[in-house]
Write a structure and sequence with these properties.
Elements lengths: L6 E5 L2 H12 L4 H15 L9 E7 L5 E6 L16 E6 L4 E6 L9 H12 L4 H14 L1 E2 L2 H10 L1 H4 L3 H7 L11 E2 L2 H13 L1 H5 L2 H13 L5 H5 L4 E3 L2 E5 L2 E5 L6 H12 L12 H21 L9 H7 L1 H13 L4 E8 L4 E7 L7 E2 L4 E2 L30 E4 L5 E5 L7 H13 L5 H6 L3 E4 L2 E4 L5 H5 L8 E4 L12 E4 L5 E4 L7 E5 L2
Parallel strand pairs: 18-19
Antiparallel strand pairs: 1-11, 1-22, 2-3, 2-12, 3-8, 4-5, 6-7, 9-10, 10-15, 11-12, 13-14, 15-16, 16-20, 17-18, 20-21
Amino acid sequence: MIKKVHGVIAAGHPETVQAGLAMFDAGGNAFDAAVACLLAACVTEPGLTSLAGGGFLLAHTNSNHNILFDFFTQTPRSKCPRSQLDFYPVGVNFGTMIQDFHIGLGSMAVPGVWAGVMRVQETLGRLPLSVVAEPAIILAKYGVEVNSFQAYTFSNLLQPILLTTAEGREIYAPKGNILKAGDRLMMTHFAETLEALVSGGRGEFYHGEIAQQLVRDCQNKGGHLTLEDLENYTVIERNPLTLNYRGKTLLTNPPPSSGGTLIAFALKLLSSVDLTKIQFGSPQYLNLLKTVMQVTNIARKERLDGDLHELNIAENFLSSVSNYQEPFLHSVNKWGSTTHISVLDQEGNAASVTTSNGEGSGYMIPGTGIMVNNMLGEEDLNPQGFHQWLENVRISSMMSPTLVLNDHHKPDIVLGSGGSNRIRTAILQVLLNLIDFKMSVEDAVNRPRVHWENHRFDIEPGFDEETVNHLNLSAQDSIRLWPEKNMFFGGVNTLVKTSDGELFGAGDIRRNGVSLNRKN
């Protein structure tokens, strides 16, 4: 008789969570559940993730082994001449602001998600890949009802990208208009493709007809990718970046990704401040967050962005905190399309996995239902400017799957977020809510957030109006008040294990996140 596993999952869609819970019912562990969720999310959240995107999975095993699987996108080995590139801007409307992204075949980097699925399942999974992929195949074949968040991302954010090709229109506007809430999203080509990939393994995607078709279109229509790029893609197993904060051990994403390192830098700055004397939402709290985000951004530009592929860059960058501590404390004392899955099981395994397709390039590999990423067209991932990337290196990412371990080196908190450049500040605020302000996981995730970038302080509703009006701002700074909580501020799906062993989770309401628990 199969022994069911007790575990808890937080993710961006109810069907994503159910796919993972089904693995617990089948006797699988947290990693089986995480991979099942990842595959299901390609159907339930197709505007946010894809098998032709990239991601990271941070794993803690019940034998106390910590490993970061890096299957993020890679830059191509050679560049197509700019004059021949299919590369152009589109505006993504968040309601209160429009952010430009670049799409087209020239925006596509070497995809890594399918390679990551294979490596994680082979290394840590317990169940056959065919079992783990079955929920996603069923969802793709029989459809998923479009919810309010999907409808919002389809029509408000991604419509010009999703409807770029005839195959995209067949999926997202089968009757001529973009799908709305209550409609059924069908991905029959993707169901067939996923079945073929399960049978054919890694080679089916990186060597076979899928690869051949992708490369032909890139060579003929203005993309960089070659068969050599795909055939030589590898998943990298890294040691997580480790830091201590308030006596707790945090594990997160190391370089060449920058998000985890920037979270670590901000926490090191904050370690010199006693947050127990500050009230959440107070003027001191908002000015503190503004200041730590300002100083972190300055340090990033001065000491990190240009050196992410240097040896020991994380250690060197974090050791520079002392150079910024005095101006930070002086200022304080003057008062101042990504998805995430978190999984914990009763056996002591934990998985924090963040994947992204960017906004998608608009190009779908013909006959597969798979849209390829636009990572070379994401301004946040190209801080030195478009087309300035080094050939054949991992692209730096803000994605920061994170674990917090207790004194016995067991996971107490599992979290991560989507949200482009807001990932690091969203995770930072949830960590502070949990560790410093001792909030419940629901409150920690769903309290209002802020984000500081380029002299602008974006603020969600929920903070006192008088407090916001009296923030310490310079003449060149501005405030943008948002009318409601928005996916702009991330989607931090979070799990917590209490001291008595109870498992609790919270899905981020900004992205219709869901958390469910499976008990024996």
